[in-house]
Write a structure and sequence with these properties.
By secondary structure, the chain is an alpha/beta fold. It contains twelve helices and 17 strands. The protein has helices spanning 8-12, 35-41, 57-74, 88-96, 107-115, 130-142, 155-167, 192-204, 226-245, 263-270, 291-295, 297-300, and strands spanning 52-56, 77-78, 102-104, 120-123, 147-152, 174-179, 208-214, 254-257, 276-279, 322-333, 336-339, 354-358, 370-374, 379-382, 391-395, 408-412, 422-427. The radius of gyration is 23 Å and the shape is globular. The model has no long low-confidence stretch (mean pLDDT 96). Keywords: Isomerase, Lyase. Residues 321-413 form the D-serine dehydratase-like domain. Its EC number is 5.1.1.1.
């Protein structure tokens, strides 16, 4: 019998949560209703106050289908990084579209995944906390269908994991990948010979099993320049060589890499190694109007999909699936407007929001305008022909620092419509 990839009943049960003051996106008129009741009522977006973050239903569906089509064509696995959304309802969409599993970054995120019954989880990090490893041992011993993989990048991390798992009397060995790093990158063994020594230490640890190799190329290049892409290729070739030389303890060893910027190169370099190539791209489901719009392989024309996910508006590119909304609350100087949304509500680390349209009036009033700064609760908008009370839609950059500011996010039928309608509410756990 096929094991469910996620507990659909637990996800469906989110519809029963009562709406109240805990959810800053929800209007007071909705308090007391359940999520399901309010979703089925299809309220207009104009019922919602500002500041606000929304997701776009059509973009989410398109992006999931496009990535599923591309990975299917490429013959590789996808374990999207769940930290982008921390939304089990969105994880279910990705898993239902064929994702191999879900990637998370740390123990709290892993516990969310397990609370919703995700059957295959990768922690893209070293998990060394003794209490966390004791809990993990219980999860593995209590659920034979649960597959877990994490990373190590030193003999000391192997030693600490083994000690903690022995103390917890773990019955099932924990699968780990040796992580290879690069100069000035994040974690990961810097020296290739040392990486093989770490692999040998894993094989000698009775509570661990050497399951593959891992790395993150996105830490080595922040743009798609020729130099950046060359750095990525050089690193991936090192990872490929490590994978060829390692002596694994599983039949189908994993090699895992691939954020949302260079997944095409990952497949080009690592796709012929055998075993399972597992991409971890996570931002694609939301995409953006900033960093990823510029660097995505689909935007750059270095990747394309032949499946049905490439059809329709937007073609073979991801679509921006998130928008900010702010109301003009002040016009204190000529040419300057202040919106009631800021750093507490919207991402700003990979570029400032861009004004796109005034709700009900289209893009004309903000044509040529720009956001110059964000304070905690204010956006500085210059050059816009807007009046106090107007609601401005903002394009955003970097979904990983957008959704973490919201516990419940409205999904609209079409963010470009004159009168968008809310068709869903997405719960997050950060």
């Amino acid at each position: 019998m096929m094991v469910p990839s996620i507990d659909g009943g637990a996800v469906d049960a989110l519809d029963e949560e009562r709406l109240d003051w805990r959810f800053k996106a929800v209007p007071a008129s909705a308090h007391g209703a359940t999520v399901g009741e309010y979703r089925r009522a299809r309220p207009p977006l104009s019922d919602f106050g500002t500041p606000l973050l929304t997701l776009d239903a059509g973009a989410l569906e398109h992006n999931v289908r496009l990535m599923a089509a591309w990975t299917g064509d490429a013959g590789v696995r996808l374990a999207p990084h769940g930290k982008t959304t921390m939304a089990p309802a969105l994880w279910r969409r990705q898993l239902d579209a064929g994702a191999w599993g879900i990637t998370v970054a740390n123990l709290p995120q892993l516990r969310v995944a397990r609370a919703f019954g995700v059957a295959r989880v990768q922690v893209a990090n070293a998990l060394l906390d003794p209490a966390g490893l004791a809990w993990l041992a219980g999860e593995l011993d209590g659920d034979p269908d649960f597959r877990f993989v994490s990373w190590v990048d030193s003999a000391r991390s192997v030693e600490l994991m083994d000690e903690a798992l022995r103390a917890a009397r773990a019955q099932r060995p924990v699968e780990v990948c040796v992580e290879l790093g690069g100069p000035h990158g994040r974690t990961g063994v810097r020296d290739d010979r040392e990486a093989l020594a770490v692999a040998d230490a894993v094989r000698k640890a009775p509570t661990l099993r050497l399951a593959g190799t891992a790395g993150y190329e996105g830490a080595l290049a922040h743009d798609a320049s020729a130099d950046g892409r060359a750095s990525v290729d050089a690193y991936l070739r090192r990872l490929a060589e490590l994978h060829r030389r390692a002596d694994f303890e599983v039949d189908d060893p994993i090699v895992t890499a691939g954020g949302s910027s260079f997944f095409d190169q990952v497949v080009d370099v690592l796709g012929g190694l055998g075993g399972e190539l597992v991409l971890r791209s996570g931002a694609y489901i939301i995409h953006d109007d900033g960093f990823y719009r510029g660097i995505s392989p689909f935007s750059r024309g270095t990747a394309s999909a032949q499946g049905d996910g490439a059809g329709g508006a937007g073609g073979g590119r991801f679509r921006a699936g998130m928008h900010g909304w702010g109301r003009v609350i002040s016009r204190p100087e000529p040419g300057l407007a202040l919106l009631d949304t800021g750093k507490r509500d919207l991402p700003f680390d990979e570029g400032l929001p861009e004004p796109q349209l005034v709700r009900g009036a289209g893009p004309g009033p903000v044509a040529g305008a720009r956001v110059t700064a964000l304070n905690d609760q204010h956006t500085f908008l210059e050059g816009a022909e807007v009046a106090v009370g107007d609601v401005v839609r903002l394009g955003l950059s970097h979904p990983c620092t957008a959704l973490d500011k919201w516990t419940l996010i409205p999904v609209v039928d079409d963010a470009g419509a004159e009168r968008p309608v809310v068709v869903d509410l997405i719960r997050t756990w950060f």
